[in-house]
Amino acid sequence: MNVLIRASAALSIAVTTFAVCLPVHAQAQDLISPLGPVYDVPEPKAVQGEGETPWLYEDSNVPVDREWVFGEMDNGLRYAVRRNGVPPNQVSIRVRVDAGSLHETDDEQGYAHLLEHLLFRESKYLGKAEAIAAWQRLGATFGADANAETSPTHTAYKLDIPDIGPEKLTESFKLLSGMVREPVLSDENVAAELPIVLAEKRERGGAALRVSDLTRRTFFAGQRLSVRNPIGTDETLIAANGSKVRAFYDRWYRPEKTVIVVSGDADPMVLAGLVEQWFGDWDGTGEPGVDPDFGDPVAPEGAAKISGTDLPIGELGVAVEPDLPRNLTYAIMRPWRKVQDTIVYNEGLLLDALAQSIINRRLEARARGGGSYLYAQVSQDDVSRSTDATFVTFAPLSDDWEAALADVRGVIADAIATRPTQEEIDREAAEFEVAFVNSVEQESVQAGRNLADNIVNAVDIRETVASPQVVLDVFRGMEARRTPEEVHARTKALFEGDVVRSVYVTPSIGEADQAKLQLALASEVTVDATARLAAESISFDELPPIGKPGTIVEEGPLGLLEIQKVKFANGVNAILWANDAEPGRVTVKVRFGAGYRAFDADSAVYAALGQSALVGSGIGELGQNELDRIATGRKLGFDFGVDDAVFTFTAQTRSSDVEDQLYLFAAKLGMPRWDADPVIRAKAASELAYNTYSTGPGPVLNRDLEFLATGGDPRFATPTPAMLKTVTPEGFREVWEPLLSQGPIEVLVFGEFDQAAIVEKLRTTFGALPERAPISPEVAARVPSFADVDPAPMVLNHRGDADQGAAAIIWPSGAGMTRIRESRQLEILIQIFSNRLLESMRERVGASYAPQAFSDWPTEIDAGGKIVALAQLKPEFVPVFFAEAEKIASDLATTPPTLDEIARVTEPLSQRVRRASTGNQFWLYNLEGASNDPQRIELLRSLLVDYSQTTPDVMKFLADRYFARSNPLKLAVIPEGQELAEVPEGQSLPVAAAPAVRPVPAARPAPRPAVVPIQGR
Q1: Domain limits, CATH 3.30.830.10, in the chain
Q2: pLDDT tens track for 668-703
Q3: PANTHER family, per this entry (predicted)?
Q4: Which residues contact 1014 (CB under 8 A, 6 or more apart)?
């Protein structure tokens, strides 16, 4: 059941060409035909009836979620199926095999993940490298809808098939059964897939991988997990062949080790029948595997103890990584044991979560108040069925990490020594109540893919799932247990265990070693009660008015559906759509100001810091802590963003809280506060993070691509430490204060709300703001340009591994709403380009794991558009990438793509549009700016057609316009000390000679235990 609990603790309308979908609550079902009978599907025989205990709920008294239909077949395969219509006409299928990297022998390391790849390579019904195209033709987007993952404990195959019908659904089960039951595990296929896996491994390398490996070895010393990374080792992977991989497959890919989960818009009996039809006669081959012992955390003999406790200090690790910021994690380790997933057990988990929330709030308050660390967090986790551990993680602000450790331990020591107050418990409980009530409200719109994933995760941790109402009932039913005594007892238990282990990451040699780390952990700690927070609530009724309520000067239909537009005398526009598509949920977005246009070379450094510090600097009399308190028991948000031509406030809130949300947003514009601490903290975080961009080629591209593509526009530069030294809280206010009162305001409210009440609230909040200062012509004209292009690549350097490189090639494209239909057709072309790039650089030669291309077409401004193709690969393949990308571009400009190529792209694109259009986010996103730009409404009518219908000649025309008529900018990222290589001899790709190289202009500036699943193909 804790899958849900822990997760909570953090129409188509036929009007001519208007062919997008309305939310499900409207008339969507009128046009979405029901699945109907599926051909030749037998009646399921293995369904567990209501009188039986479903296999997932054995030894549990958690109420069964009867939306699920469970079955267990004679061959041992178990399944769970249910009807779900979110999004409409989609089915999500999950196949989980109970075998991951922990099930490999020493010489099989990486085989579970390699096997995951091979199932997509060739199987009974799919020829070599046909899987990607096959799933695309069924409407699935590769990577998003068709994927897999390998973790230490399982391998899971994930398919989301849109626009499902009898034939497509049957075909999906057929293809999937062939992949799982009869993959072609030949030497040839292993040899073809191995370079792709090695490329994936290479791209995950560098400093982060070294720290990950050290962390895993240290925290899980003596356990199987310490020497089992899902990606494997070079030695074991290179030694792989068909027979070796087949041996692993035969042991673990068996029906009794497999669970199939299906959630979708279909009769559950049909889904169960399909599972039994395609998997019911599956038998394993050879002897089944025997689950290995994962081991327990054990303290070394004679270990030193934590001062004042019986906790022995075990293995310690120190990593010196010059480009990583300081980070220290210590963990109290306990053995993992399968639990009886009962109501009482889950009540205990909730008490644990409350205890952690109280400590984390205190730690955050200490950091906000000028503490010695940037952030700190306590979290309990069951890791890979290997340990039940409490992790404490923090980032010291300086080289005095011992002081930061002492500060963090002091706050925790207080929580262990002294009971929390009832007010503290009630405050955190109010946050949980909001989350659980919100889940109940949203139950009818839970996405099928998420429901399927919940079952997979529950099977993995050997527990159950519960409906949102059950979770809420359990939480409310344990109110009598939410006492200081009970929470204190659970707090103390979180910091009891068998051994403490720790890893410290530092950029400086000699700053720490194992002896210093042990001494710091063993030192006595001073209890720090200063971080305990006052729990008195703040009422919105006590807050001052924004101003004199405004006057409505215009109100009526926007011109689309039932969406309304309201205009106030001060110039504020609002777009409102009250609907019940997502019960209880409301999205609020405020657009104002000039966005990146507002900044120049002198103020550019404050753009990035604004996204981190503007909200935290407060409103009126409320600082950051007070904003937290006023949000208690409410679902309020405050995301701030800087876009091309506008600033945005965004929040997901509830029907009952939307009025308060509007007040907060309006108050930030009408009565901003300018606390210094959030600015200082954001500055420190940026300084600490800057060097991490040098750790590999991918981060370098993230840091510099936008900056270099715009010809060195300082607004798009990642602030360097030298730039950050000029930042002050006073400077922050000087830049941002006028920007909050500049430019038009548009407020969008979409969701379930009382329209009359919201119009009135808008009148007293945004309508009460003073008139806005206009955006000057000078500011409005600050649009990005494209870089001056030299035929030779621009070379960037990273300080990561010597075998890591990256390349990006960038063409200028268009921008603005006037040509938005062209941008949608261009998206089809770029997806065709991306498929060809994937085929050549990945599938054909294994040079790169995930090459891709994308189109960036700004709609708020009339410049700055670009097409980007990029890949991570070995440095010697960088010139090959440039040549291949230019060859693909040239081919598309001279020879139209085939109809099949187009269909492989347009079908997934059209399905993405149809699925997205069932929610309010789709409509809000596409109607942003419509209050001042009515063409957005008209252009929305052709959206689905533009993404789903085109011709080869149109594709050729666009390729000629954007590829053949402009010179691209090339960025090469290679290790320091290396030079860009010539094209390797014997390269199988048809490539041109490597161009000359030019350097980047010198004047331009340039965690937790790692047991994260390897995300599939």
Answers
A1: 36-279, 313-522, 540-780, 794-1006
A2: 999 999 999 999 999 999 999 999 999 999 999 999
A3: NARDILYSIN, ZINC PROTEASE PQQL-LIKE
A4: 113, 116, 149, 150, 151, 200, 230, 231
